[in-house]
Amino acid sequence: MQLVRLGDVVASMKNGIYKPASEYTDDGVPCLRMYNIESGKIVWRDIKRMKVSASEQLDYGLLDGDLLVNRVNSRELVGKTAVISSAMEFSVFESKNIRVRLDTTKALPKFINYQLLARGSRHFANNAQQVVGMASISQGQLADFPIVLPDLDEQRRIVSEIETQFSRLDEAVANLQRVKANLKRYKASVLKAAVEGRLVETEASIAQREGRSYEAGEQLLQSTLAARQVQWVGRGKYKTPEPPQESDVSLSEGWAWATLEQLHLQIADVDHKMPKAQESGIPYISTKDFFGDEGIDFSKAKLITAADYEGLCRKVKPERGDLLLSRYGTVGEVREVSIDGPFQASYSVAILKPVRGFVPIRFLIAALRSDVVQRQIKRDVRATAQPDLGLAHIRQFVVPVPPMAEQLRILEELDRQLSILRGIETEVENNLLRAQSLRQSTLSKAFI
Predict the structure, then answer these.
(1) Could you list the residue ranges forming a coiled coil in this record (predicted)?
(2) Verdict on whether the full-model pTM lies above 0.90
């Protein structure tokens, strides 16, 4: 097995085609972009099509066995690669990619592709040039990539063994993904049961069995509305929120419907004029800073000046215990503010200030994440270039209000079940990571 350069087994290399947006059309030829290269394969997703002449099809067409290598990307992704299959629709490729056509009397496309998968990412990350915030590799750098080159029979044996191992891993990963999807559905069903009175025995049922009275949801709602007026510090004369419209969804005995406006002192967003980013300052988060189910990544948030922060806070100021609801782009994600430090949220996020001391924050979060509210979000979201959910709609979303004693039991049972669920989810994620490590280990061992 000899060590050679990739260029030693290449018949030709060519950078892809560039055309302005006006040349893209629904009935054109597929143009593979850097987003279509993933894990050594072509991913047929979000395919762009363009007008291509006959001569351009000859120059930039992709044939069975061609390698498509990404030449411009972030440093950790530049150099990713895939093999073109004859089963794929005839396509051309964009300028951020390089087509590598091999001399197949010397090297098998899959054999070279697996070597690039095994070592290409680290190699090109260390050797790429930085161009306007992106890493870039040239044809010359790609040609200099070191490869091991046994005879063709040995190449076929190695490829066969890799694909056998990968087939087993693919089956395991598919099973884990099915488990992951089932867990997501189970979580949704638990939340749905929680806000429909099916997760624990109702307070009405317990009170009837014990022969006593209880505070119903309607009484809790009236107490909340009275507290809302006391806690309200807005401008002008206090205005009592309108009651919810009649719902065709039946409630458990002792429960009541309330609008989000009735349960909150304020539901607002900041002015839509975007403040300028600064080298240092106060975090200005958006939905892109949400991660996982609960997290907000303040460390990567845009920073703004203290003056801009103070100006934006004149309309609404996020504080500990408030809720953030994504309303633009990614719609319907919920986060609780759990820090005391100053920050502001962009207009892509609605800031909800609950009435303090009544309906627990955690129950509001469960309701917002449940099918009960998510259906209302889907109904009212405005389909523009980016999905957009208006504040007026958010204020009128209806949520169930159970008796307080029942809410506390619901939250206890919800915590118990979701804790078990999180443990299983963590195990699934760990196994998916192990599968990825095993895939990389298989490749590394094949080319020692």
Answers:
(1) 159-189
(2) no
